[in-house]
């Protein structure tokens, strides 16, 4: 058998061998975090005065869902907010009648044109206080858009 024919045959066999090999598998993605326990739902009730000095009628829910990756999703859903504005929220130690220091900043809640607001944030579960704590929603200070005004909704964990 001539050498050139032998090389061509070897090349064809090598190509066929490589073509028949299974493709390498992509690494398995890590499993998605699983919910741990039941979500905790807290009623947020009207609290304090609105910027125009009317009593607050803002109410809603705060839902805390813990996950196996050590994170907790905190979702806020509110109604009766003055429309088209942004509100601040935090988790404080204490009760609605005796607010303590801020434990966690929960970000902003944005009210649509109907006064319905939603917001969510993920925090390490280890940062959620195990002692008495309260979710508080604040109106923005009208004189300082980055500042926080008075509390308008509150709910105890």
UniProtKB/TrEMBL annotation:
Residues 1-25 form the signal peptide. The keyword Signal applies. InterPro entries: SOD-like_Cu/Zn_dom_sf. GO terms for molecular function: metal ion binding. One of its GO terms (biological process) is superoxide metabolic process. Keywords: Signal. Belongs to the Cu-Zn superoxide dismutase family. This is Lipoprotein.
């Amino acid at each position: 058998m001539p050498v050139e024919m032998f090389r061509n045959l070897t090349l064809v066999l090598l190509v066929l061998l490589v073509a028949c090999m299974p493709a390498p598998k992509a690494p398995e993605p890590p499993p998605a975090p699983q919910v741990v326990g039941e979500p905790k739902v807290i009623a947020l009730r009207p609290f304090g005065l609105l910027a125009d000095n009317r009593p607050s009628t803002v109410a809603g829910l705060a839902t805390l869902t813990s996950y196996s990756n050590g994170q907790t999703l905190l979702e806020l859903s509110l109604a009766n907010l003055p429309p088209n504005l942004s509100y601040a929220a935090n988790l404080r130690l204490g009760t609605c009648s005796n607010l303590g220091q801020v434990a966690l900043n929960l970000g902003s809640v944005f009210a649509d044109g109907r006064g319905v607001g939603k917001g969510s944030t993920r925090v390490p579960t280890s940062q959620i206080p195990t002692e008495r704590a309260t979710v508080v929603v604040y109106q923005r200070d009208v004189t300082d858009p980055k500042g926080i005004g008075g509390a308008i909704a509150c709910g105890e964990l």
